[in-house]
Amino acid sequence: MAELLASGGSMEMVRAAFGNGADAVYVGARGWSRRRGQYEMDDAAIVEAARYARSAGKILRVAFNTLPASSEVPLFLARTDALHAAGIRDFILTDPGLMMALKNRHPDTILHASVGCTIINTQDALFYKEAGASQVVAECRMSKETMRKIKEEAGVGLEVLVHATTCYTLLGRCTMSSYTKHEQRIDEQGKNHFPGSPNRGGLCYRICLSDWDQVGPAGELEASGVELPNRAYFLADDIPELIDLGVDTIKIQGREYSVPLVGQMVRFYRELIDACVRDRAGFRMEPWRERMSRIVADRDAERREKTAGLIGEGRRVH
Amino acid sequence: MHGFELILSVASPREFEGTDLAPYDAVCLGSPYCRRVEGNYAEELGLLPEVVSRLHAAGKRAYVATPAVPREADLPLVERLVDAAAAAGADALEIHNMGVLRIVREKGRLVPAHMGAYANVYTHLAAGVMRDAGAVRVRPNAEVTLEEMAILAREARVEAELLVHGKIPLGVTDRCFLLTEPEESDPKCPSACGEVHWLTSRQWVLKTVGKGVLSGRDMCLLEHLPRLVRDGFRVFRVEGLYETASYRSEIGAVYREALSRAFAGGSFAVEDRWAGAVRRHAPRGLCNGYCFGTAGRKYVGTVLQDANPEV
User: Fold this and answer.
1) Is the pLDDT of residue B84 over 60?
2) Is pLDDT above 50 for B153?
3) Cβ-defined contact of B213 to A169 (cutoff 8 Å)
4) pTM check: above 0.90
5) SS3 for A102?
6) CA–CA min distance A27, chain B (Å)
7) Residue B243 burial by Cβ neighbours in a 10 Å radius (0-12, 13-18, 19+)
8) From CA B151, how far away is CA A210, in angstroms rounded?
9) What ipTM, to 2 d.p.?
């Protein structure tokens, strides 16, 4: 049965996610994951969360899925060595070089290729498998046909995001945020958090969601209020098909949301998946829609507020 | 290579037309953004033998771009493209997608691989993995600073290519945002991306080419060329996609002369006519911030900073 993976932006969120039925939770190592520092964890908290997961018979996965500088590779190795020594084996990575280095150093680690790898075809999946990943995250707009092909031909686990955002450009291949604002901020461990770069430090100013106009060569207005779509989605109708496809992990993104909202989302998907698995032939989506629309409304309200704050922060001159 | 290599990107015969290639040592043929670009060398495979031969006859190397976002359904084209580039005698394939790199490797590395702007090369370890799969050159991601690039190239033992002038690739997708209808039925396709369209939002300006987002300002490293020489960079790109023939010709001429002078050693100063040319072709100003660790749209320098009207 597909694993339900949820976000852990804090210890409280980790507990809420497990308490509401997640099989696994991912957390970000501070300075090393695709979210800003306030949604990441230091090593002590990660070890505590991993203990909690183990005591519940569940899995904690640690994201080191940013793209660092070459000079930061020793920091990465030291930090993952320490977590490995503390019993942590599950990691999420983006850089294929880091994947290979970690796998060679600790063959018993279980590596998942992050959404930041932008895996869009079977050959991509095979590439990351060869780099050491046992599971890959499907790019957010991947077709079911490609998912099926990866399952059949790549011999690698497949993870699908059911709650996430589809960026304007391909997630993991966008530097629009850091083009507008980018800083170097080095923490006490020597890790640069690269504020403004989602690929390198996690903080994205979501400038695609700003108010854009399209103008021609001489500055003449062609269209005002142009949308550069970056939409949050909440897939439910797809769940039965994903289960049928043999998807290994169904992932709920959202470390930046409130703990109660994450708890609600996890509970919703847990019950939906269980109901579907219990009676696949008789499963109908209709009864779930009203509850889903309430969660989506809450999610959208939180997202709007966060987005406005991020765009404002991005505009401020430093 | 006589000291350095200056590369120009050209998507199609239309972009080729009127462009003076004399300043360039190599041309990267094709657009990685969209298969529907008219005459895209990465799609119109029948054009490759003649254009590669023509470049070789002129003493230039010919590289061929591969699609940056090849979905599963595009992979058969990629296979044909790799075969066609090899048969035409192309000197390298520009690769952005790891799956494409794997295809090239599986085909026995018929053509060397150059990792392109969207390959997300940030560390020497990643570059090493790509090198082992057949890459002989990498273009580090735009966000990587000059200092980091030098470490990356040295540690991974690969050549590093550097964008010295032109729009910075900032994002890529497989949906065209200049169209309102599906590609096949929208009358604006394929002409829309051949026109100039800017996206503006108060102090921010970007250039959209439908499936790609580029910087509004032009990356310009003209005044920093002596430093690049000292740091060991030898391979430089002028981004010619979606620009005019005069842009490609005049910017190329500026950099040919400036790089030659920088490589000769001795004193180096930005000539007024060089500055005039880069300013004339950069209506939204100049930038180079990523190279120095600041936001990409910033300009770091003391000579051409006033060319940026919005700083």
Assistant:
1) yes
2) yes
3) yes
4) yes
5) helix
6) 23
7) buried
8) 36
9) 0.96
Cα separation values, A172 from A50, A151, B115, Å:
27, 22, 16
Query: Residue B2 pLDDT more than 70?
Result: no
Q: Give the distance from residue B123's alpha carbon to the nearest chain A alpha carbon, in angstroms.
A: 5
Those residues with Cβ within 8 angstroms of residue A41's Cβ, 6 or more apart along the chain or in another chain = A8, A10, A11, A27, A28, A29, A30, A49
Q: What is the mean pLDDT of residues B118-141?
A: 97
Round the average pLDDT of chain B to a whole number and report it.
Answer: 95
Q: Where are the alpha helices (DSSP H) in chain B?
A: 13-16, 48-57, 75-88, 98-106, 124-132, 146-156, 225-230, 245-264, 272-280
As its CATH architecture, domain B5-170+215-270 has: Alpha-Beta Barrel (3.20)
- What is residue B311's predicted lDDT score, i.e. its pLDDT? 38
Strand-strand pairing, B212-220 and B204-208: antiparallel
Contacts of B124 in chain A (CB under 8 A): 70, 73, 97
The partner residue sitting opposite A121, judged by closest CB among B71, B129, B196, is B71
State the smallest CA–CA distance between residue A2 and chain B in angstroms: 24
Q: How much is the average pLDDT of B33-56?
A: 96
**Which residues of chain A fall short of a pLDDT of 70?**
317-318
Tell me, what amino acid is at B151? I
Domain spans, chain B? 5-170+215-270
Cβ(A125)–Cβ(A148) under 8 Å? no
Domains and CATH numbers, chain A: 3-315 (3.20.20.70)
